């Protein structure tokens, strides 16, 4: 039997088909999704995009060129790399995520990595107030030293001839007109060689009016670039140079450069050769010329901390005091802060809010104000503390003159400034201790001290440990309290480099770099690098402690 295909059964009409037909283009949804033409502001922004990018690029290239033209090659390369990376990231559509990372990475490189590397590099040099310049600049400075030949100095006057000028030189003995110059423009920024003419050739007379001293000052820079040569003479001894607002004359240079780079002093023929170890031009007798220049000295600054006995003694004492100062501050501030937090956590204590506010005040008042107030309170002759001690016990301690008392005073002030921080932290941690533990302890008959040492302290000290390490690192570099209260004094009496018995490493470094010892930046940078590694070690310890807490 042949199979036949039955026709499909038509579907019943849907209720949705009822009513008038609506075109898709006539619906409100179609109007909502219609692409609108860009606004005028968007079109203007599109037109200005590439001109603004080009302008920024030209400004960046000009900055790089300026650095390179100024002899700062490495700065120019670093700036070019920074701007190149920025343009590559923000103009590339595929590096969208880097647009958010680039500012942070750039800030870290510019403000953290670069200062660290630059400071470390200075620590391997002899950079100081006596070795500020490069060897080339020191050589140019020494070659430029000269003195005038007094018996050949000539007075001069400057005469205006329209927009040009002529110099008139007088004989040093008779005062008669001797030499004149051709008309000069007195413009430009390069040295100008001029051959003088006899006064008889000063044409028919009219030299124009002589400029007053006030007008002469306006042309002093152009006059300083003139080098006047006598007719037929070309030697340096016969060249007249600008000596002031009224004089031209020959000069006698103090040094002459030799083919091997050494300098010969003209007055006595002494030869000074550059010494790459000391950064000076020196003769065979060890005499050196000032100023010196910057050279690499390797580990010399670090070796001084260990091998130089006169430097090692105060340095080790200061390092030990820095550790003791930081450790005792944290210990005493923690003990006082935890004790006050426990007392303020006692619910039966009346006026707890008032006590908490008063005890928080040392943290609310700016630190430098509190330090200066304490400096007045501890004054030996007029301070309130000595007035009370004198009235009660008849003593007036020399807080700023005695090393032990000065250190004690520093600890008192620093603990006063630091205990509110620990008190706040401990008060917050106490709220997390379950009350059931204290109830069980009370049933067992334990007292307050047992509760503190068996329950409170163990549960608080563990989460508090990373913060205590951070407090130790902060006090390790607490420059403000030392600088404002004692300024590092009293000083060690037998030290090559001025050092104070209350100095910590950071204040000691500041004194070396900027104050008493001739600004030895190289040594200060070496100590700063050591401080960085010590603080970095504390930070790593802090991270390990925090990892254990998590």
TrEMBL record:
Superkingdom, natural source: Bacteria
Quaternary structure and partners: The complex is composed of two ATP-binding proteins (MalK), two transmembrane proteins (MalG and MalF) and a solute-binding protein (MalE).
Its job: Part of the ABC transporter complex MalEFGK involved in maltose/maltodextrin import. Probably responsible for the translocation of the substrate across the membrane.
Pfam families referenced in this protein's UniProt entry, alphabetically: BPD_transp_1, MalF_P2
GO cellular component, one term: maltose transport complex
Record protein name field: Maltose/maltodextrin transport system permease protein
One Gene Ontology molecular-function label: ABC-type maltose transporter activity
Places the protein is found: Cell inner membrane; Cell membrane
Keyword field: Cell inner membrane, Cell membrane, Membrane, Sugar transport, Transmembrane, Transmembrane helix, Transport
Family, similarity comment: Belongs to the binding-protein-dependent transport system permease family. MalFG subfamily.
Membrane topology field: Multi-pass membrane protein
Gene Ontology terms describing biological process: maltodextrin transmembrane transport
Keyword Transport among record annotations: yes
Annotated transmembrane regions: 47-68, 74-91, 98-118, 318-346, 358-378, 409-430, 464-485, 521-543
């Amino acid at each position: 039997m042949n199979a036949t295909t039955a026709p499909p059964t038509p579907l019943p009409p849907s209720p949705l088909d009822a009513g008038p037909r609506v075109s898709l283009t006539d619906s409100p949804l179609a109007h909502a999704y219609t692409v609108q033409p860009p606004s005028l502001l968007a079109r203007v922004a599109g037109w200005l995009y590439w001109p603004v990018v080009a302008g920024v690029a030209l400004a960046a290239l000009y900055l790089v060129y300026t650095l390179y033209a100024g002899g700062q090659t490495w700065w120019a390369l670093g700036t070019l790399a920074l701007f190149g990376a920025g343009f590559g990231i923000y103009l590339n559509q595929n590096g969208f995520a880097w647009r958010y990372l680039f500012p942070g990475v750039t800030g870290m490189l510019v403000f953290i990595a670069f200062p660290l590397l630059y400071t470390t590099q200075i620590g391997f040099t002899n950079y100081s107030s006596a070795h500020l310049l490069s060897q080339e600049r020191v050589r140019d400075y020494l070659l430029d030293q000269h003195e005038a030949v007094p018996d050949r100095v000539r007075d001069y006057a400057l005469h205006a001839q329209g927009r040009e000028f002529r110099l008139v030189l007088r004989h040093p003995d008779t005062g008669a007109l001797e030499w004149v110059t051709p008309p000069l423009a007195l413009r430009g920024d390069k040295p100008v060689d001029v051959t003088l003419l006899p006064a008889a050739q000063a044409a028919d007379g009219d030299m124009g009016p002589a400029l007053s001293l006030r007008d002469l000052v306006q042309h002093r820079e152009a006059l300083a670039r003139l080098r006047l040569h006598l007719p037929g003479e070309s030697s340096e001894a016969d060249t007249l140079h600008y000596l002031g607002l009224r004089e031209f004359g020959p000069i006698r240079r103090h040094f002459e450069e030799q083919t091997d780079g050494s300098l010969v002093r003209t007055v006595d023929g002494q030869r000074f050769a550059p010494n790459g170890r000391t950064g000076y031009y020196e003769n065979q007798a060890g005499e050196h010329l000032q100023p010196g220049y910057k050279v690499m000295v390797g580990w010399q600054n670090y070796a001084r901390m260990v091998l130089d006995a006169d430097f090692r003694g105060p340095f080790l004492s200061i390092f030990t005091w820095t550790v003791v100062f930081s450790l005792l501050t944290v210990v005493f501030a923690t003990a006082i802060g935890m004790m006050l937090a426990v007392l303020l956590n006692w619910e039966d204590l009346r006026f707890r809010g008032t006590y908490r506010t008063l005890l928080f005040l040392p943290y609310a008042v700016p630190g430098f104000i509190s330090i200066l107030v304490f400096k007045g309170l501890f004054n030996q002759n007029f301070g309130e503390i000595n007035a009370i001690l004198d009235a009660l016990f008849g003593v007036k301690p020399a807080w700023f003159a005695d090393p032990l008392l000065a250190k004690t005073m520093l600890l008192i002030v620093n603990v006063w400034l630091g205990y509110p921080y620990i008190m706040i932290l401990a008060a917050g941690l106490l709220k997390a201790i379950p009350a059931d533990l204290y109830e069980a302890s009370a049933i067992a008959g334990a007292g307050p001290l047992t509760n503190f040492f068996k329950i409170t302290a163990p549960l608080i000290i563990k989460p508090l440990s990373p913060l205590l390490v951070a407090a130790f690192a902060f006090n390790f570099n607490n420059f403000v309290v030392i600088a404002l209260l004692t300024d590092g004094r009293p000083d060690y009496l037998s030290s090559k480099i001025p050092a104070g018995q209350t100095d910590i490493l950071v204040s000691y470094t500041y004194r070396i770099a900027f104050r008493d010892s001739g600004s030895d930046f190289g040594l200060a940078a070496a100590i700063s690098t050591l401080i960085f590694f010590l603080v970095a070690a504390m930070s790593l310890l802090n991270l390990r402690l925090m990892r254990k807490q998590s």
